[in-house]
Specification:
seven-stranded mixed β-sheet, binds pyridoxal-5'-phosphate, 2 domains
Length: about 400
């Protein structure tokens, strides 16, 4: 037994990947002995607006003074306004929102709704993907966390990654082989995030959209990482001119200030439930603190100065990534907006990054960067300088 009475996630409990957080300051984490880390991954892609954004805190504090506890069917001040504001920001006023407590719960509800409205059982999921740690979301996930558990998988059918030769033709064949009438939905991370930042081409998205139309398959976009500005636009799917039927939101939706998530469904799906029971619910449905934090996030992301900043800082990020690309230790970099996957040809020690003063997400020989969107140019350049030094030290 170690000294901690709680578990750490996704690691052997003897694993030393842990650090203290004594305080936070914008994009910085400060440990108990005063070591300062620039957060280059927004913790786990959720702290998109830094660690203590005053606008989010202001909304949450005001909520604590009015209606602080959950009441799933209660309509408290702000619930209607904030939801309408979210729909406006998504440019999806014709649909409806189902609130949740996080990414996995969002994906669970999206999957249940898709299967319910279509009366079909099978779901097409990407071979490389992450959708959350609950049974259904992990069942759809395509990585080691899925194989670590013997999950019921009879409802999941894997389709080829966009980079595979003849990916679209093979996908179509898979659908025909299983019977097109059996497929409820595709579930797709708009850009595969935590597993390395893999994007499909416009042609691939057109092909997927075409199959959805032809076979009556719903398109569930998992925007848990890509939503709220991460890839440079408000939502990742906006890069490809696709029309999702269901959109999964979490993480950046509250900037990680409170566990929260949301499922957007199209007008048709919303309409379906007017005369039918929506058999979905949570005790903490539309938790007022989540709604309040979302109101703060919407205030931030719709501000013109934030949008100008995001455009500028994305260019700075790309410029800095190009410098890193020249290092002999770097194999490939894939990036979109403020999200980047860097594949190295050397083994990674997370501790080296920590010692150099940066916090980031790593996976074998891969780094995934997702700096807070509010990071200043100076902080970003400093973070990238520390990253470069750390990569050189891995040799
Ligand atoms: C794309 C994606 N979907 C869903 C999830 C699950 O979110 P949560 O950890 O909030 O349950 C994650 C978490 O990393 C994610 O990256």
């Amino acid at each position: 037994m170690d000294e901690y009475p709680f578990f750490f996630t996704w690691v052997k409990q003897s694993n030393p990947l842990r650090f203290s957080i004594s305080s936070v300051d914008g994009v910085k984490l400060i440990t108990e002995n005063g070591h300062e880390l620039i957060d280059m991954s927004s913790i786990s892609y959720q702290a998109s607006f830094g660690h203590n954004h005053p606008t989010i805190i202001k909304h949450m504090k005001a909520q604590l003074d009015t209606v602080p506890m959950s009441a799933p069917r209660g309509i408290f001040p702000g619930k209607i306004e904030t939801t309408n504001e979210l729909l406006k920001y998504m440019d999806k006023k014709d649909g409806k929102i189902f609130y949740t407590t996080g990414g996995a719960e969002t994906v669970e509800n999206a999957l249940k709704i898709a299967r319910d409205v279509s009366k079909r059982k099978l779901v097409l999921a990407r071979k490389i993907s992450y959708h959350g740690a609950t049974m259904g979301a992990l069942g759809a996930t395509g990585d080691w966390r899925n194989t670590a558990h013997a999950l019921p998988q009879d409802w999941v059918v894997r389709f080829p990654e966009p980079s595979e030769p003849d990916a679209l033709a093979k996908t179509r064949q898979i659908i025909l082989d299983h019977g097109q009438e059996n497929f409820a939905a595709f579930i797709i991370e708009t850009i595969t995030g935590g597993n390395g930042v893999f994007e499909g081409s416009q042609e691939w998205w057109d092909g997927i959209s075409e199959m959805c139309r032809e076979f009556g398959i719903l398109l569930i976009m998992d925007e848990v990482i890509c939503g709220f500005g991460r890839t440079g636009l408000s939502f990742g799917y906006m890069h490809y001119n696709v029309k999702p039927d269901i959109i999964c939101l979490a993480k950046g939706i509250t900037g990680g200030m409170v566990p929260f998530g949301a499922v957007w469904v199209s007008h048709n799906i919303a309409d379906y439930y007017m005369a039918r029971v929506l058999a979905c619910g949570l005790t903490n449905y539309a938790h007022p603190l989540g709604v309040a934090a979302l109101a703060g996030v919407l205030e931030i992301v719709q501000d013109f100065d934030f949008q100008k900043h995001l455009e500028h800082i994305s260019k700075v990020f790309k410029r800095e990534l190009d410098i890193i690309q020249a290092l002999p230790e770097v194999e490939t970099i894939r990036s979109r907006g403020m999200l980047a996957g860097i594949d190295l040809n050397v083994d990674i020690q997370w501790k080296t990054f920590f010692d150099k003063g940066i916090h980031l997400a790593t996976q074998n020989k891969r780094i995934v960067l997702a700096p807070p969107l509010i990071i200043t140019e100076e902080e970003l350049v400093e973070g990238m300088k520390r990253l470069k030094k750390a990569i050189k030290d891995m040799d």
